[in-house]
Amino acid sequence: MPGLVLEFELLPAMTETPEWGAEITALLRRHLLSAHEKNGLKCALRVTPTDIRDQGKPPALRSGTPWQRLERSFQLCIQAGADIVSIESVGGKEVHDPGLMYGDVRSIAFALGVLAPRDMAWLWTNITRMCASGAAVPGGDTACGFANTAMQLAHQKMLPEVLAAVVRAMSAVRSLVAFEHGAVGPSKDCAYEGPIIKAITGCPISMEGKSAACAHFSPVGNIASAMCDLWSNESVQNIRLLSGNAPEAFAEMLAYDCRLMNTASAGGGALQLRQWLIDSDQHLSPQAALLSPEATVEVASAIVAADSHYHAAIAAGLAAVAILRRRVSSGALALTAKETSWLNRIETELQSLPAGEDELLDEMTRTHAGVFDPAAYGLA
Asked: pTM surpassing 0.85?
């Protein structure tokens, strides 16, 4: 391998006891440094503390012991040698989860367009500050707890796939806020909204797909690599396979994938390879259909044309609906009658949202009384 980025995602206990995560960070750093000195391997270490701020009901987010321990975890891991830091933040998840459960588009829009962006702005201002005091790069966030939850539930036939696809587009709004407050990439690999962020910011993105099947299934195995800068897998369990330990085997898969992509780029065939990766997925799933370059640019354009995060989330959702409708009309994408009905419902719900977020805030405060704390989001 010419280069390797290793990611260490802390378990909750490793964040709750910050010294544990820092100790493992230091150990990994020593091994990567040794590999560089002995073999010339270009390498970096990404460290991702667990967002443990949702322990209370409702989550406090900006105060209390969970936030203090999370902050301390970042500080110690940066001191221990993390090159890149990221997080899978949870602000707004307490409203988004029941929104998914009941197919409640209004709650989903409120979580992704009002609550999550406010938490992201506050959180990433702090993460960037901590990175500035050390040598770490603020990488980026991921809507894993939002869009990936929807993706996996759709895979299990527990919610409509078109809803998961629209949620993915809308989730880019909250993930983008990290870059508005200092993140520079490469973004988190499980942030499948990364291509939209790349279209807006130009920052490098990390993506995972077919080589991450060891961790989870997805309908975007090939198309996810069409626009990536850093190709990744995730959560490879350390078990013995016939060839060797699983992390070794999956690292080899990544190496061959990257070798192919780099060879195509050097030989002038990058656009052809990219198109094959896109076409092998985009017609088979609504979620894949929204990850083509054309689709991501369309969603990105809708986001940047909006005047607020709230309006951007709605615009991204409506853009996603329009893309799916065109794909269906052209025959490029097939939807069942039930999925089509849900697409109609999602569009109607998005169009019926209040013009201003204050009105929706009043409604959601009543609907989700006791579920979220407005003060945790800087709301009066």
From this structure: yes
